[in-house]
Amino acid sequence: MVYEKEKLKNTLAKMERIQAALLKIPRYYGNDMVEQILDDQRQVQLKNIQLAQNEPYFGRLDFEEKDKPITPLYIGKAGVQDENTNDLIVIDWRAPVSSMFYSFTGSDDLISYQSPDGEITGKIHLKRNIAIRNQVLQRVVDSYVRGDENMGVTDEFLLYRLSDSKDSRLRDIVSTIQQEQDVIIRADYNRLLIIQGVPGSGKTTVALHRLAYLLYQYQNKIKPEKIIIFAPNRMFLDYISEVLPELGVGDIQQTIFEDWALSLLKENIQLKDRKQQLVDWFSPHANHQITNPKGSYTFLQALDKALLEYENTFLPDQGFTAWENKHLSSKEIASWFYQEYRHYPLMKRKERIMARIKRWMETEHKDIRARDPRGALKKQANKQFTAYKKSWPNHSVLDWYRLFTQNTDLLSEEQRLKGKQREVSYEDLAPLVYIHDRWYGMEGDQKYDHVVIDEAQDFSPFQVAVLKNHCPSSSFTILGDILQNIYTFQGIERWDDFSILFEEEKLGFHQLERSYRSTMEIIHFANSVLGSYSGDVKPAKPVFRSGKPVRLMQVKSDKQLDWIKETLQQIETDNISTIAIVTRDEASCSVIFESLRDAGIQSNRISVDQKEYLGGISIVPIYLTKGMEFDSVILLDVDAEQYLDDSLHAKLLYVGCTRALHQLYITHDKSPSPLIKQVLPELYEADIYRG
């Protein structure tokens, strides 16, 4: 500890001196290329120092390269270099040498990493985790010391970090990245990565760290403004908003699919109320056998075929006559359409042909201007042109798609678009964008170097196919959990539904099975709730972090508010920061929110259109909790009539249970759900609230 305190003091002093020296150098705004590069480098160094000021580093690795002395390497969020000596004071966590800090577990005598000059091999003598907060050394944990046979605290630092309470934002994990996570983060750029991750496995955080790594490692291939993240909802975007800035990364687009799709479609298209769709779907006795053919690969193929037929019959049979003896044959126009302009999208071809005919008319009229002083022939030509242009098809994207839905056998009567309605469902957006891209093409800012899809089990194959068209490199990070596919009316049940869209040699599949979020008690309980409905997907494995037992409470409806108030008081004495009161639907959510407000308890009600996560006490329907995590979770009204014994309800409860880090409370009024009854009694404590 004494050595590390002195080391920290010296490092902070060096960083302060470097920063002061850099700030004295005036910015360069001239045209000299070399000076521009030097100025850019100084600005990057300043940014790195500012990023590293409060926590310069989090790890130390003593590495002995062959025939060289042991070198202590200090690893942090940002690399800091002494400009006078060129010595690295702190090494960036994304640097090749830093990979050893994450991959080394103590089991191998020799370890290597890939440097720009080739493979470097050597020995690790010390692996040390260091916790620094606001420039103060908090904790030092040695997870490996060469020659010490008693080392057995590999996870001590991880457990120390996991014991922290949550605030209102997701945070970076650079100091605790695990080996299996690091493999994903450092995977090659130009491939599709599918990450099947259990709740709390860090898949979202891993994906965000992967972006930071890719931008560091492939600076000449990937630009931050050409990366796009698709999140499940706007509130989740707010929840993850601080991770990338903490890693020194900015300018990455973050959106949800419906906002992105509607921004591309230039037509006046309205989206149906998403809230009502979810309310209907998640009512206990809804028909959950409904499928979404509009999102399927089969629907895409049918649409593709129809579009091709439309393109092949798009060109009118007749040519164009401007005036007598001035004629463009249909054959000549067809050669423009099918040969000269074949690489242009459909409507761009039409635009170019119309512009070319216009130029031809102007050129031809110049030759006869003397014979047409009053412009009668020109007026005639313009009139002919207007009529000829009208002979070409002129469908809007929505009008053509509406006709397609009305004539395909793949849809039920309820799934077809009727009349002239301009209101569409979420499931219609991918087909509409697909048609728009085929007809109008894509602007440069609509093409991406890398695409991230979070909670991807709720995406359809059609959506992924559309996004693939917008990413020429096919570089994707797709992450989710098949066991959390509660939106089965729009999502998938197996990852193969996506992989068929990509070349096999570009596919990479990773499973994250360890849950770093919840205690052992919560994970074992949640796995038991899921039971046989987990299918072939491996359930979560907890890290060795024990906590309070899961509490199952029978609470009569007329005493529910009293029990909630007492439980909240009890939870708050445990130094808990974030609490979720989880209800079955939004109606129950509103009732609880208003009851607590009347009782003088401040809380935040979360709904479908929520844009910001505020922390504290949240009241949320169970189907909106995905992707979130809370110190303590209270699941209300888990009764037999609310949670049936079927796959969807098992997954709903699994999602709800696995939101909790430290404490999980479950209440029922009469008989608990059969999904709870199947759980072994030793996995929870049952009690009755008597008030």
TrEMBL record:
<dbReference type="InterPro" id="IPR000212">
    <property type="entry name" value="DNA_helicase_UvrD/REP"/>
</dbReference>
<dbReference type="GO" id="GO:0000725">
    <property type="term" value="P:recombinational repair"/>
</dbReference>
<dbReference type="GO" id="GO:0043138">
    <property type="term" value="F:3'-5' DNA helicase activity"/>
</dbReference>
<dbReference type="InterPro" id="IPR027785">
    <property type="entry name" value="UvrD-like_helicase_C"/>
</dbReference>
<dbReference type="GO" id="GO:0003677">
    <property type="term" value="F:DNA binding"/>
</dbReference>
<keyword id="KW-0378">Hydrolase</keyword>
<dbReference type="GO" id="GO:0005524">
    <property type="term" value="F:ATP binding"/>
</dbReference>
<protein>
    <submittedName>
        <fullName>AAA family ATPase</fullName>
    </submittedName>
</protein>
<dbReference type="GO" id="GO:0016787">
    <property type="term" value="F:hydrolase activity"/>
</dbReference>
<feature type="domain" description="UvrD-like helicase ATP-binding">
    <location>
        <begin position="176"/>
        <end position="519"/>
    </location>
</feature>
<dbReference type="Pfam" id="PF00580">
    <property type="entry name" value="UvrD-helicase"/>
</dbReference>
<keyword id="KW-0547">Nucleotide-binding</keyword>
<feature type="binding site">
    <location>
        <begin position="197"/>
        <end position="204"/>
    </location>
    <ligand>
        <name>ATP</name>
    </ligand>
</feature>
<dbReference type="InterPro" id="IPR027417">
    <property type="entry name" value="P-loop_NTPase"/>
</dbReference>
<dbReference type="Pfam" id="PF13538">
    <property type="entry name" value="UvrD_C_2"/>
</dbReference>
<keyword id="KW-0347">Helicase</keyword>
<keyword id="KW-0067">ATP-binding</keyword>
<dbReference type="InterPro" id="IPR014016">
    <property type="entry name" value="UvrD-like_ATP-bd"/>
</dbReference>
<dbReference type="GO" id="GO:0005829">
    <property type="term" value="C:cytosol"/>
</dbReference>
